[in-house]
Amino acid sequence: MARITLDNLAHSYMANPASEADFALKELNYDWEDGEAYALLGASGCGKSTLLNIISGLLMPSQGRILFDGKDVTHAPTAERNIAQVFQFPVVYDTMTVQDNLAFPLRNRGRDEAYVAERVQEIARMIGMEDMLRKKARGLGADAKQKISLGRGMVRKDVNALLFDEPLTVIDPHMKWELRTQLKKLHHDFGHTMIYVTHDQTEALTFADKVVVMYDGRVVQIGTPEELFERPEHTFVGYFIGSPGMNVIPAKVEGRMAYVNGAEVALSSRYAPLSGKVEIGVRPEFVRLSESEGLPVKIRRIEDAGRHKIIRAECFGQDINIISGEDDPVRADMTRVTFDAAKVNVYANDWRVAPTEGEAA
Question: Where are the transmembrane segments (predicted)?
């Protein structure tokens, strides 16, 4: 396992980048702690795979360094970094059996056959392929081949890091859940440093100790699932995490009060005067329908999600989402909404603003 340091790291696919906009990965400084499980989360094209490929050595960064336990490996080839990487689409040896595919990384490093057999059996059980060990990979479907790729990535215990680039894309939904559980168990049992790239928030939040949210080539927040939910540092984090995502509403903020089209919204903390694009953000879970208090809304439709209802509404011409309990009433006279003041975040130019006083812990 290794502590991975990203030092002044950035990358452009252009030969002569002239501005920040030319960089697919904008400047990044961060330490990935030894033994932690991270998820790189963001929409397609945000720079996730670029960053992963720099860590693995498949891509040389335009600037900066990458260090493993303090050792500069920026120019070291992939083989010298002692990492295992699993790609989005399966990479297997078609002419080999499942057993030989799984055994290959261990045999390549001279491990004795007794250990190889034991470890292969353990991994085959983990990925649900014990009864297929003697089958050739050539005749298997894409999901089975990807399970082999996952197994081959996990078979070694001595790697510095395990890197996963959207590895469950071709796996059926039921098996996805099982494999995520097995990956979590592997991390718990052996303490590998793991980095998992995905655009699926459920995968990220259920897998990782810390989630790295990327937007437009930039890391906009690194935090636990709870931190991302409670205090999104960027409006994109609020929008991307949660279903539905955070309501972001243009507002004027003065002290402990926000004003939306002149209507007051109480805040739990005091804020200094703000300039630029000012907005408040509140998650649908912390919005409540009211008969007489709060902002005016028009309910457009109600979606029954089983344990709760998602209410789609409009507030001063802007879409707003409300999550209410399964048994909470929704009546025609409920034409206003209130916000839990302690759960309202304030943003200026898309970045969360810290209050000057009174922020709840």
Answer: none
